Amino acid sequence: MKLRNRVILITGGSRGLGKSMALGCAAEGGEVIITGRSSVQPEWVYQYEQVSYYQQDVGCLESTKKVLERVFNQYAQIDVLVNNAGINRDHLFKDMSLDDWNEVINTNLTGPFICSKAVLPYFIDQGYGKIINISSAAATRVNIGQANYCTAKAGVEMLTKVLAIELPRIGNITVNCIQPGVFEEGMGEELMSREKVWDKYKPRFASGRPGYGNELASSLVFLASDESNYINGHVLEVNGGLMWV
Ligand SMILES: NC(=O)c1ccc[n+]([C@@H]2O[C@H](COP(=O)([O-])OP(=O)(O)OC[C@H]3O[C@@H](n4cnc5c(N)ncnc54)[C@H](O)[C@@H]3O)[C@@H](O)[C@H]2O)c1
């Protein structure tokens, strides 16, 4: 029970990898709050006493502040923020609209900025907190058709490193990042459903297979637990061995 008495907020956890990480944290005794844009709680949440769902748009500071107030009122603490919410709007650059660009940057990069900023006063008051950002292999590898997504994810990794140096000066706060490869859940599922695309990707994987959500969740549990207290500013690649190109 590595996360007993820990309160973990996972943005965008209604499905996909966020759901896998929520279940992983709950299995280790954590109290988990997941968020999403919909006003309707996902059906699966009703089955887990330790998981709650709140509505949030990570691109909106007001919406995020309200979520954090609610979390604090309910649990009187917030220990871990997981910046997981993400979208893609893939197009070749010549066809990418300003809206495609702005939506992805707003959710995937400004979202982690907003959520980290909003949680900081709570972390400072507590004298403790962990931020864990979810980037992507696309942060350090070129994907044609993902100028917006690759740029946002590269930004998330740099945000991780800057905050990891700044925030420990004002509290016992660490900031780390998990860089997933391709997973069976969420966006990865969509990628693999396009057979031709997956055939092209597959040889890049030493493991020869995508990851499973629980294999990402175990890394998150480690970074969210006290076992990782001396790890800060790290980007943990979880991809089964992924070639560069
Ligand atoms: N699945 C993969 O193979 C893979 C690989 C690399 C990185 N990632 C990253 O993992 C994270 C989770 O992705 P996923 O694959 O589970 O995708 P997904 O589409 O299944 O889940 C994304 C979640 O984010 C939520 N969301 C989207 N915009 C939001 C907003 N503005 N405010 C609040 N919530 C919002 C959605 O409701 C959903 O719950 C993303 O950051 C993604 O970039 C996924």
UniProtKB/TrEMBL annotation:
One of its GO terms (biological process) is monocarboxylic acid metabolic process. Keywords: Oxidoreductase. Residues 6-176 form the Ketoreductase domain. GO terms for molecular function: oxidoreductase activity. It holds the Pfam family adh_short. The keyword Oxidoreductase applies. This is 3-oxoacyl-[acyl-carrier protein] reductase. It comes from Cytobacillus oceanisediminis. The lineage of its organism: Bacteria, Bacillati, Bacillota, Bacilli, Bacillales.
